[in-house]
Design a protein that fits this description.
415 residues, 28 strands, Molybdopterin biosynthesis moeA protein, domain 3, 7 helices, alpha/beta, Molybdenum Cofactor Biosythetic Enzyme, Chain A
């Protein structure tokens, strides 16, 4: 049995290759960017108005005050989406301009509409009255002040979120290159597993498959349900691995049949193939009998997760997900740091993945409660939890006030 740290080192050294594809940027939610994206344009594309008001040349107001006001002739109106006035601007001229309107050449500042005094009246104005010095560049959005041409918009390896899509569409980026989603073939195992709603006491409802499937959008893979492997399906499983080697399947994940029982055939079947990387058994709780194997000379890999639902959930989160992020080129996850509210005791050499509740205190700190009922068969605390807490090896007693690393259960801890 190896340490959790050692298992992660093995996973990082055994990547499989995932190809790229070009997709529409508006359909790129939760995809991983394959290349840096640079702006093709300045944004804003030209100086424009930040407020509704009137554009003037600030130099025309240099000597104005209450005693020496000046009339500025209104020569036109500019709204967002129209071409700017191109006529040569004379002294003491102004143009009405709406928010987003391009500021015509010859003007350099905006007087907000709320500060405007009209002449002869508001209903039929021909002029505005200015009776003070107006600062240059007042209420002006400058060309390229947000993005300059060739500025980087999003870096390679970023998981695309809605805010990225907004930026891409604003800047006219229609197509982007992303990593293909890994194709994951999933099998539940065991004669006891049933897809029926009403079952006898000696059967178990199939929850692991639907749980893993529910994660596929946020955890960046295509889910393929392989069904249930029964206790005598060694040859069926072996044939499925052979098919994977000839198909577009990237990963096979099983739940159950990896321990040391009479019908735990997954490890023995996997070992009949030539492997370049392998481990079985990690010093963790829950999920000790977790398995990983990479087929030698192939960009194909397998994970064997424990059959217990909570163990499956924990091992998916802390083994499969880091592996997926690595092969997709995403940076390692960074934990959320939280303050432990209650004590927690474990075996010193073990890493524990703990069902926990994360809350914000009145003082603004993130507080973590390790929930009661950490036994791997207990579903209720998992349903109550909103975070996984990681209590690392090397320490036995954790006290109130300790800082603990936390990870979201249903999405990666990525920015």
């Amino acid at each position: 049995m190896i340490s959790y740290l050692k298992s992660q080192q093995i996973l990082r050294k055994a990547p499989i290759k995932i190809g790229d594809e070009i997709i529409n940027s508006e359909n790129s939610l939760n995809r991983v960017l394959s290349l840096n994206i640079f702006s093709k344009h300045n944004y804003p594309a030209a100086n424009n108005a930040a407020f509704d008001g009137f554009a003037i040349n600030s130099g025309d107001t240099k000597f104005l005050n209450k005693n020496t006001p000046q009339k500025f002739e209104i020569i036109g109106s500019m709204i967002a989406g129209t071409k700017p006035i191109k006529k040569k601007i004379k002294k003491f001229e102004t143009v009405e301009i709406m928010t987003g309107g391009i500021i015509p050449k010859g003007f350099d500042t905006i007087i907000p509409i709320e500060q405007i005094e009209f002449y002869p009246n508001k209903n039929k104005p021909k002029y505005i009255i200015v009776d003070k010095n107006i600062n240059k560049h007042q209420h002006v959005r400058f060309l390229g002040s947000d993005y300059k041409k060739n500025d980087i918009i999003i870096k390679k390896g970023t998981i695309i979120h809605s805010n990225h899509i907004l930026a891409l569409k604003t800047l006219g980026i229609k197509k982007i290159k992303v990593k293909k989603k890994p194709n994951v073939l999933f099998f539940s195992t065991g004669n006891e597993i049933s897809n029926s709603e009403n079952i006898p006491a000696w059967k178990v409802r199939n929850s692991n498959g639907p749980y893993i499937k529910s994660l596929h959008e946020n955890f960046l893979f295509n889910f393929i349900n392989g069904g249930i492997l029964r206790d005598n399906h060694q040859s069926v499983f072996k044939n499925q691995i052979k098919k994977m080697l000839r198909s577009k399947i990237d990963l096979i994940i099983t739940s159950g049949a990896i321990s040391a029982g009479k019908f735990d055939f997954v490890p023995s079947v996997i070992k009949t193939f030539k492997l370049s990387n392998y481990f079985k058994g990690v010093e963790i709780k829950p999920g000790k009998p977790v398995l990983f194997a990479k087929i030698k000379g192939q960009h194909k890999a397998l994970f064997g997760l424990p059959g217990n639902p909570i163990s499956t959930a924990a091992c998916y989160r802390f083994f499969v997900n880091p592996y997926l992020l690595n092969i997709l080129g995403v940076e390692n996850e960074k934990p959320i740091k939280a303050v432990l509210k209650n004590s927690y005791i474990k075996k010193k050499h073990m890493t524990h993945f703990v069902k926990a509740k994360l809350n914000t205190s009145n003082s603004g700190t993130l507080d973590l409660e390790a929930l009661k009922g950490q036994e791997s068969f207990k579903i209720k605390p998992f349903a109550r939890s909103n975070i996984w807490a990681v209590f690392p090896a090397g320490k036995q007693n954790f006290k109130k006030g300790d800082i603990i690393d936390c990870f979201f259960p249903d999405q990666p801890n990525t920015i």
